Amino acid sequence: MSATLHTQGLAKAYGGVQALDGASIEVRPGSITGLIGPNGSGKTTLFNVITGYAKADAGEVFLDGRKITNLAPDRVFALGIGRTFQLTRIFPSLTVLENMLIAAQHKERSRNPFAAAGGAASRRHAMELLDFTGIASHAGELAQTLSYGQRKLLELSYVLVADPDIVLLDEPAGGVNPSLINHLAARIRDLNAAGKTFLIVEHNMDFVMGLCDPVTVLDYGSVIASGPPEAVRNDPRVLDAYLGVDDDETTESGSAAF
Amino acid sequence: MTAVRASQAGGSLLLLAAAAMFPLVFTNAAVTNYGVYALIFVAAASAWNIFSGYSGYISLGHAVFFGSGAYLTGIATTDWHFTGSKVFLLLPLAGLLGAVLAVPFGLVALRVRRHTFVVITIAVFFIFQLMAYNLSVTGGTSGLLAPTVNYATATYNNPFYYAAFAIAVGTILLSWLVRRSRFGLQLRAIRDDEDRARGLGVHTMRVKLSAFVFSAIPVAMIGGVWWYYTTLVDPSSGFDPLFDVAIALMAFLGGLGTVAGPVLGALLIEPAYLYFQQQVSSGYIFLILYGALFLVVILLLPRGVIPTAGELLKKWRARQKNAGSPAGPGPPAGAVAAEVDRAREHA
Questions:
Q1: pLDDT of B328 over the 50 cut
Q2: B198 at the A interface (CB within 8 A)?
Q3: I need a surface site. Which of A147, B72, B204, B295 has the fewest CB within 10 A?
Q4: Which residue from B183, B188, B340 is facing A136, i.e. has the nearest CB?
Q5: What's the rounded mean pLDDT across residues B187-197?
Q6: With contacts defined as CB-CB under 8 Å, which chain B residues touch A129?
Q7: Is B109 exposed, middle or buried, given 0-12, 13-18 or 19+ CB atoms closer than 10 A?
């Protein structure tokens, strides 16, 4: 079973904008934790700080009680935390299979860097995962020829081939067509059942509420609510953050906001 | 697919044999002279491509290794009173110097990317040229002269030809090994998205620096051959900005990041360069033509001859296949399975 990831009082400012302001979250092993919040509430910045793509001004990140704050991205990855990006980042001039192999290379047993890229085991595992996400028929094509939705699937596939314990997904459903979204949710559920932990940033509320438990809500860089989806959905502070209305009005409008 | 690979291997062996026989068939010194220079640039452009082509970091400072290799061979030859073919024994030492220089050079330059990286490589290049002008060991402006060699006139060029040939073949082999290896895949991932590669556990600095060192070694060795062949190195010829531009142009023309591209580019450009240099009395006109050629390549063939030709061939094959199948616009039956097979086989 994978480890607990938690952050304590993370702060990060870009110029005058306080993107993170004392953000403390917890991702329990085996959970699919959702991370939501209005635009600019600091969700992606939180991802960046956890995975080493941005340096925290203050606060700490812990993995199983061990401090991993501000480690370089390759080190964080080696500890078993993999991520995708909101704007999908694949390697366009490598083939789809080569994209998979680059993510698998850290597991290769051979220490000889001149060994041919991707051993038989890596290739088999890569093809299995491409089958699993449904893009195996494109394995030999350059990744730049894939459609937007296929790129999302490729990025998810190659993060999975690396076999991290904790997978951070930044808007996996963004810009993806509805049938593919269901496919994606089913895949995530399968993987979770097999023991993978997920932290998912997503704007599609049906997707989050149907998949994630618990759900954590960020606003202005700090956590304003966290708990089961039902509780968060009806939390007045959350409704306030999304709609900017008074507390007494929210009680009337209820869960219609979602 | 295996048939294609077999024909590729056969073609490579045939070319190799032809190159090995070249000075035995063409005994005219004017012709073998072309061969020596062409091979010098085959080695240099291929070596440059191992770093710059695969990683996408365009170095305009590889003349540092070329000149240093030339000077080291010159200094050691003079100090140790080496003569004749014994001088060629110094080439591994030149390669070692290239590797040793590449480490601090790389550690400084590889901290930055793109334009900044290019500017730093140029700056380091000029530092070395200035040192060559001012240090006593390099002979200042007058440079270092090679001892006269008593090779038979008829076959005078042959030892140089085969020394350059050995280094060129070794470099191409290294380039091929890197291209198909995990190391090469990491380099190409860095070219596409370095930060993303880092986030997938690629130790980017280590990978980039290793490639920089590997690419410096053959350039320094071939610099030694060049010094012995031309018999003189001075600061402006050893550390020549035109050398940097030339090897980059060769790789761009043939196909950046391919094994065959820089070889083809060097074989096309260097003999043409020598020919025009002899034909056109004013060197300036040829330099202008050279610059114009670079512009044309970047504008019209930005990916180079080999990738463009490969694409055309693929399209032509696909059209042939479609014309033959009655299935219409959709992919022919079994194409998907074939694609997967090919991906599995893909090196």
A1: no
A2: yes
A3: B295
A4: B340
A5: 92
A6: none
A7: buried
Please state, in angstroms and as integers, the Cα–Cα distance from residue B257 to each residue in A27, A113, B1, B291, following that order: 42, 18, 22, 22
Whether residue A94 and residue B188 make contact (CB cut-off 8 A), yes or no, is yes
Dump pLDDT digits (tens) for B271-305: 888 888 777 766 677 778 778 887 888 888 878 88
Q: Decide if A235 is inside a domain.
A: no
> Is A198 within a domain?
yes
Flag whether residue A15 sits within 8 Å of chain B, measured between CB atoms. Answer: no
Whether A65 is in a domain gets the answer yes
Mutate to test the interface with B, among A102, A130, A141, A157 (most CBs of B within 10 A): A102
- Cβ atoms of residues B43 and B222 within 8 Å: yes
Residues 6 or more apart from B15 whose CB is under 8 A from it?
none
* Structural domain count, chain A: 1
The answer to whether the beta carbons of residues A61 and A67 sit under 8 Å apart is: yes
Residue A37 belongs to domain spanning: 5-227
On whether residue A248 sits in a domain, the answer given is: no
Which residues in chain B are contacts of A159 at CB distance < 8 A? 200
Domain B26-303 - what CATH class? Answer: mainly alpha
pTM: 0.82
Express each pLDDT in A20-76 by its tens digit: 888 888 888 889 999 988 888 888 999 999 999 999 899 889 988 888 888 888 888
Domain boundaries, chain B: 26-303, 305-347
CATH number of domain containing A21: 3.40.50.300
B135-152 mean pLDDT: 83
The H or E element spanning position A225 is strand A222-227
Instruction: Give the C-alpha distances (Å, rounded to integers) separating A255 from A230, A236, A242, B168, B287.
Output: 9, 10, 12, 72, 74
Mean pLDDT on B320-334: 53
Interface test with B, best of A114, A130, A163 (most B CBs within 10 A): A114
